[in-house]
Write a structure and sequence with these properties.
Mean pLDDT: 85
Number of domains: 1
Number of strands: 5
Largest sheet: 5 strands, parallel
Distance between the termini: 37 Å
CATH topology: Rossmann fold
CATH architecture: 3-Layer(aba) Sandwich
Radius of gyration: 16 Å
Structural class: alpha/beta
Number of helices: 6
Helix content: 40-55%
Shape: globular
Length: 154
């Protein structure tokens, strides 16, 4: 019998992130699984903040990153509280910095999760081929099953 005891839900705060969170939390409730909700602060953002702080525009890099991390954790908690299935679940929030795809794959391996639930933005095949996609990277590099929640095109 298939059993999920640890579920990783990476989020980017897009509209589709809430859909992925709803799916992941529903599965966690069904299987009584621990949830790891994760957000990766892109290396491009970290580099831009660092560059601005060097130039003195917005203050100290460490303080700015502390504020960004607090904002991102607050946003993750908001996604959870927006879901009706979040009560009484064990949820751990994880923040990383770097390349989102790589960080998600690494976290899945380190945490030994049984399932990843990730949203996908629904880019065209050509756009995905040219631009790459975090969901596609994760699908191609993670050793565990993945549930990709598509965006609904209207």
């Amino acid at each position: 019998m298939i059993q999920f005891s640890k579920i990783l839900i990476p989020v980017d705060f897009s509209e589709n992130s809430q859909k992925a969170v709803n799916y992941g939390l529903s599965l966690a409730r069904t299987y009584d699984a621990k949830v790891y909700m994760m957000h990766v602060i892109s290396q491009r953002i970290v580099d831009a903040i660092h560059e601005l702080s060097i130039k003195g525009y917005k203050g100290d890099f460490v303080e700015i990153m502390k504020d960004v991390r607090q904002d991102r954790e607050r946003e993750m908690r908001t996604l959870v509280t927006s879901s009706t299935t979040s009560e009484d679940l064990s949820i751990e929030f994880i923040l990383k910095e770097g390349k989102p795809g790589s960080e998600i794959v690494e976290a899945a391996k380190e945490l030994q999760v049984d399932l990843i639930v990730i949203g996908h933005q629904g880019r065209s095949a050509l756009g995905s081929l040219l631009l790459g996609s975090v969901a596609q990277y994760v699908v191609n590099h993670t050793p565990c099953p993945i549930l990709v929640v598509p965006s609904i095109q209207e």
